[in-house]
Target: 1-deoxy-D-xylulose 5-phosphate reductoisomerase
Amino acid sequence: MRRVTILGATGSIGQNTLDLIRRAPDAYHVVALTGGRNITQLAADAREMRADLAVTAHAELLDDLRAALSGSGIAAAAGEAALIEAAQRPADWIMSAIVGVAGLAPGMAALAQGSTLALANKESLVTAGPLLLATAARHGARILPVDSEHSAIFQALIGEDRSAVERVIITASGGAFRDRPLADLAHVSVREASTHPNWDMGQRITIDSASMFNKALEVIEAKEFFGLRPDQIEVLVHPQSTVHALVGFCDGALMAHVGPPDMRHAIGYALNWPDRSHLPVARLDLAAIGRLDFAAPDPARYPALALAGQVMQTGGHAGAVFNAAKERALDHFIAGRIGFSDMTALVARVLKGGVPDAGPDMGARDITLESVRHWDHFTRQQMDRLIAA
Ligand code: NAD
Ligand code: MG
Model:
């Protein structure tokens, strides 16, 4: 039996992961499941999967979790330290599916036990890519990408000589506002921004898809994970979301990964790797789809994309600053305090002006968990100050 742990089990990726595990209950032993405020879901899943341990990120919900698990024999724990302990429990395969930079420390703890980390939490690579990869190498752990575009690139690279890769192309659906008049974008609602044309995902990544902050994060994620130069990474708008990514080789060939927009493919690929096993995703009928469209992203509609270039140029903690500024701007947008277009404008201002309280040089290279926390903390404060001003 393979021992598996799911960090962020109650979220969209976590639930899709459980869907796959549920189909082969005898193949897996669930070690730990973690979640946030949805105690009912967490406890129900822990009971169904007969997990050893369930952890909520919120210390004040420990009693609720204990009550929900009473009589089950499943251990309950709560808080940040408990999340780390869950990640440290011996397991063969650990899904990193917490949303935001909060997923970094648990993911690092999982790597330190030398097992396989299925990485959905792109923020880990954006904020601390070199640290994450060095930690994996030091402990003999393997990171398998779960972001659909990165899983697609990973699959297109199988058997290929990396030095023959010229470029990678990451596709983007264009999000909720692809066809909206530009002038409307300042006034769109949180509800509209939370609806994705093709993918069913958590609210935060769905809004990030509409703004293309998600794609900006993915460009940086690709640079870090595959060791690419920024000029080797392109973004292509592809409204059907069936081609997830393409890899371009030195002989002009493009290898495209084509599949339905269903995260269970990328999750299942990481779960079954290095094998391929049957997965319960739709089979594409290309004749019925008929056509696939591609277009260059409009920089006026998606200004977040250009910021990714700046971040990669600066390096060091620029990824942590970018991500924290984005996460905080998104909090304020969801709370109704700023408009949709304000998010990119504010993040651009933080990148340009720096984070004076955190230090003069966000490009400084020595990345540790503590240094990421430091830049993250002061960037959020800086964003709050800009919004209050
Ligand atoms: P989600 O919001 O649906 O779920 C997030 C999970 O993290 C939940 O279990 C929640 O309880 C937990 N969580 C939230 N805040 C936390 C905190 N501070 N500490 C600990 N746990 C916390 O998110 P999601 O859409 O499943 O995305 C998860 C990750 O996967 C993100 O990094 C996202 O970018 C990435 N991803 C998601 C998709 C998708 O289809 N949803 C696709 C590609 C990549
Ligand atoms: Mg993606």
Notes: Residues 66 and 76 are 6 Å apart (CA to CA). DSSP finds 16 helices and eleven strands in the chain.
